Amino acid sequence: MTLAEYARHRGCRPKAVEEAILAGRITRSATGGVDDAEVADREWEANTDPEGRKERKKRDESVDAAAGAQKFKTVAEARSAHAQGFDVERLGKLSFADAKAIEKNIEAKLKLVELEELEGKLVRRQSVMDDVSKLCRISRDHLLNLPVRIAAQVIALTELADVEAAISEEITAVLEEMADRLERVAQGDPQ
């Protein structure tokens, strides 16, 4: 019987059988295996100290989970650092595996951008620039029209308090109108 067959017979690993042969607890046959399993079992039992056997300690699962998380973090950081340090001049010198990894990294980043855009966490730059431009134009128009709208009212007033009140009312009206228009633009109203 081979060492692997004897290990199955004993219910142990083949390595344990090899260790028992090297330690002299059982004898190997001339063919390299075990001739008689019963004799080998008796030798095993007689030459193995039951007190000397080490009981395996079970590993704490939280340690395994932490080690796995650390390994994942380390691999992710390594890939990120590799991608960040990418040099375009090396393109001709890249291995196929590196080129494929870069391609997959770029695809993943694009998919992430698409996902964030669909979730509303990300907006296109040109869209924001257009909205800001529109808001600035609306604000400018309202502020430039303020003197024209208020001049006729102020010229007829003689009391300083009345002039201040008229200007204040007109500024408040302009700001409220601007706020309404800005809110409509923010909600997507083209006007």
Q: Structural class per helix/strand content?
A: mainly alpha
- Low-pLDDT stretches are none
| Helical residue percent band | over 70%
The SSE string, one letter per element, is HHHHHHH
Structural domain count = 3
Query: Helical region count?
Result: 7
Main sheet overview:
none
Choose one word for the global shape.
rod-shaped
What distance separates the N and C termini?
Answer: 91 Å
Average pLDDT across residues?
78
Q: What this model shows, in words?
A:
The protein has 191 residues and is mainly α. It has three domains: 3-47, no CATH class; 61-118, no CATH class; 125-186. It is built from seven helices and no strands. Helix 1 crosses helix 2 (14-23) and helix 6 (125-155) packs antiparallel against helix 7 (160-186).
Task: Summarize the helices and strands and which ones pair or pack.
Blueprint: H1 3-10, H2 14-23, H3 37-47, H4 61-84, H5 96-118, H6 125-155, H7 160-186
Quickly list its features.
single chain; 70% helix; mainly alpha; 191 residues
Tell me briefly what this model is.
This protein has about 190 residues and is mainly alpha-helical. It contains seven helices and no strands.
